[in-house]
Design brief:
Elements: E1 7-12, H1 20-29, E2 37-43, H2 45-54, E3 61-64, E4 75-79, H3 94-112, E5 118-121, H4 139-146, E6 149-156, E7 161-164, H5 174-177, H6 180-196, E8 204-208, H7 223-237, E9 241-246, H8 248-251, E10 262-265, H9 268-279, E11 284-290, E12 293-297, H10 314-337, H11 340-347
Parallel strand pairs: 1-2, 1-5, 2-4, 3-4, 5-12, 7-10, 8-9, 8-10
Antiparallel strand pairs: 6-7, 6-11, 11-12
Helix pairs in contact: 6-7
Length: 348
């Protein structure tokens, strides 16, 4: 039996005062993970050794100064910095944010250069990462700038997949962001991702309304009638199985979501509250639509439990597996769709 390709999984460390390092340690303490991938943590041996000692972990690291030195079946740590860092679990600290960005930027550079195959990001704190040099509300917006394609926050699990028309946008500004062009772009991104990344043919997609009860025919806001419905009608005319807009309040409780391959919510909380309620601990945040693969757990830094050893690594581990599977699915899709006319002629 042919050995499966070892996929190089780059891991950004996230906020050093949060639970990122803990869930990384717990994930790769399971040596079976090394049968699926070669992990490369973007941090430093000094920093990771501190976490290993603090959490009494039995994990062994392989320290490297160059990505070419990474070894299969080892938990590799690339030294992005060399200095000793003071860790203050649970505290918002601009210095911790600075190192989180150093890790993310170096990992993103490696992803762009194909030195790693996929990127899994540990949680960052959106306040402490802000600086004159780095002014993004989160990973998704930064990666959208750095990588090719049009990004979409896509929360995924085996039982539910939820994409967003708007992500880190204040609720009061949501309607002005939703245009016919945006709707078409996001539906197309979800549609292509379901086919290429998740191997779902002829996907069915549901779209949730912008206003309560999808506007009630214009009684509760006109955006659904004037923007969302016409845009979805045009998309359906082109043959895509896209339905809605549905009233968001009853859509998940009625289990209607089970009839679709993906749901597109109009704004952040409309999609993420039901997603995390249904899948918490198993869900993955995937940045769809880019030419590279990035996933992360579906939770934040969890400062309230940082350093206590009680963090659940389930979502982070799922993020690693999801990134690996998407990478393999994309390669398979590329192989199947590469020069189809040439393949067809061989069969004749």
């Amino acid at each position: 039996m042919k050995k499966e390709e070892q996929i190089r999984v780059g891991i950004s460390i996230g906020d050093l005062n949060g639970i990122g390092a803990e869930i990384i340690l717990k994930t790769f303490e399971d040596s079976r993970m090394l049968e699926f991938c070669t992990p490369i943590i973007f941090a430093s041996i000094k920093t990771m050794s501190f976490f290993k000692k603090h959490f009494n972990s039995g994990i062994n690291f392989h320290g490297i100064n160059d990505l070419n030195q990474a070894i299969e079946a080892k938990v590799n740590v690339l030294n992005v910095w060399k200095e000793t860092i003071d860790i203050a679990f649970g505290e918002e600290d601009l210095k911790a944010g600075e190192y989180a960005i150093k890790s993310l930027e170096r990992a993103t550079e490696a992803l762009k250069n194909d030195d790693i195959d996929v990127l899994v990001t540990a949680p960052i704190n959106k306040l402490t990462i802000q600086s004159e040099r780095f002014n993004f509300p989160g990973h998704t917006n930064y990666l959208a700038q750095e990588l090719g394609g049009k990004s979409l926050m896509f929360m995924v699990s085996d039982k539910l997949k939820v994409g967003l028309l708007t992500d880190h946008v204040p609720v009061k500004d949501v309607p002005q962001h939703i245009t016919a062009k945006l709707i078409e772009e996001k539906v197309q991104t979800v549609y292509e991702s379901l086919i290429k990344d998740f191997r779902i043919n002829g996907p069915k997609i549901a779209v949730l309304g912008i206003n309560p009860h999808a506007g009630d025919h214009g009684v509760i806001g006109k955006e659904d009638e004037e923007i969302l419905k016409p845009a979805l009608h045009k998309i359906r005319e082109r043959g895509k199985l896209v339905y809605g807009p549905y009233s968001a309040d009853s859509f998940f409780g009625s289990k209607n979501y089970q009839n679709f391959d993906a749901i597109i919510a109009s704004y952040h909380d409309q999609g993420l509250i039901p997603f995390k309620t249904i899948t918490f601990g198993e869900g993955v945040n995937y940045t769809a639509g880019l030419n590279k693969i990035r996933t992360s757990p579906d939770h934040g830094t969890a400062f309230e439990i940082a350093g206590k050893g009680t963090a659940d690594e389930g979502s982070f581990k799922a993020a690693v597996f999801t990134a690996i599977q998407i990478y393999r699915n994309r390669k398979e899709y590329q192989k199947l769709t590469k020069n189809p006319l040439k393949r067809a002629s061989k069969k004749m």
